[in-house]
Specification:
Three copies of one chain form a homotrimer.
Chain A lengths: L1 E6 L5 E4 L1 H5 L8 E7 L4 E7 L4 H13 L14 H10 L2 E7 L2 E2 L5 E7 L5 E10 L3
Antiparallel strand pairs in A: 1-8, 2-7, 3-5, 3-8, 4-7, 5-6
């Protein structure tokens, strides 16, 4: 199990961790890469790595769907929106690995989704072998 | 493969199954724990286990996002909202395991998300070894 | 690693790929099946395979939650809604396998979720052995 440290710079942020994940892949392995976020106000997703406007649009749309201020909220920290957005994106991603390389689509990048930053965060990476 | 039985007590419910999952982890193993929900109106997520208001807020926000009564709905059972909320949370969670212990963040718990209860539900748990 | 080709016929579509996935399961294996979508405007989910109105309702509700035209959008392709809906459903699904059979609930099917079709798409399938 390896750990990737992520430093988010804004309250809401999507940080491309693909290169950092790629550096952890064992030489020549076939199977899956399991990436896990150990937080409850940040998550992980996969999405387009070409036009950064995609990530900006995703964050704006999520902020409209799940507004920061919700009159019904009872959580004393006041960040329940970040908790829900994290559950909506998910806390783990699994990516195929072939001959030691991540098998991502042409436009796919792996993103750490910060919903209550800026903070220092960490993500674990593991590798599981495929049945031959 | 092991099975955890879950009894939901309300129409919408988030039930902490972390302790039940923990009891199934093989001694000394390293890898991932795979938890799977065999239903279509209930899902699984990870979120904060400290202040129960977080789970209450998540359920309220989801109910506002995906209201139970939707005029467009054509499904004869009338519970399409539960189906969508389940897909939004997901049907499986994968958690790292190190030396026979779940590697969860300090505030993370594993939750069974009931969206059309109360019902008797079941969840499967499996363990996959990591590449050394 | 095996590949399943999917041809979507509409702009928004949920295509049942359960039978195609089932045909790839190795004889007698125990573990998990990992299905991965290599796109950023399509995802994967699990949901009810009995009444097709469930999938129709899910797509209608998602289109209301994340409208195609969003005045804030900056992405030049104009399909940010498809990107977000894909992240909300997820890009991978993992299903238990026992004695060479997918362990799905009675009403569960595996769905390819097209959000910006019609297009030719592909999905990878892999199998990981369980700890005995």
């Amino acid at each position: 199990m390896q750990t990737i440290e992520v430093k988010s710079g804004k309250h809401s942020d999507m940080i491309d961790i693909t290169a950092a994940v790629r550096r952890t892949v064992p030489v020549g392995m076939n199977g899956i890469c399991h990436i896990f976020c150990k937080h409850t106000t940040a998550g992980l997703t996969i999405n387009e790595n070409a036009d950064p406007a995609v990530c900006a649009d995703i964050q704006t749309a999520l902020a409209q769907l799940v507004p920061w201020s919700q009159t019904f909220s009872r959580h004393f920290e006041g960040n329940s929106a970040a908790h829900l957005k994290s559950s909506m994106m998910g806390f783990s991603q699994t990516v195929p690995v072939k001959n030691g390389a991540l098998v991502l689509g042409t436009w796919q990048g792996i993103y750490f989704c910060e919903f209550d930053g800026p903070r220092s965060r960490s993500v674990t990476v593991q590798f599981i072998a495929e049945v031959e």
